[in-house]
Task: structure prediction
Amino acid sequence: MSVVEQRYHAVIEVLSGAKVTDVAERYGISRQSVHTWVRRYRGGGLGALADRSHRVRAHPMQTPAATKPLYGCTGCGATSTSPINYNHPKSSR
Result:
C-alpha cells in the first residue's frame, strides 16, 4: 500500500467517525499528522495527500535578483552575477 493510500484510509476512518487519537495510534503517527491529512484532503482531494517538497522557497537574507549587480568582462563580453567568475575562459583556476 502506498503512502497516499495509507493516508487516504486514515482520513476516511476519521471522516467516518473514528477518533483522531485512535487512528493516529493505529497508524503509528501523531494526531497532528492525521489532522493535517484531513485538512489537506478536504481542501484538495486525494492528490493533496501526496508528499510535498521541503525545498526552501525563499531565504530572508537572499538578495532579490533584480538588485544584483551584473559584472561584465570588457575583453570577451562574458557576464556574471559574481565579481569573481571562476568559469571564465581567462580565469587562472
About this structure: Strands lie at 71-72, 79-80. Residues 64-93 form one domain. The chain has a mean pLDDT of 80. The helical segments are 3-15, 20-27, 31-44.
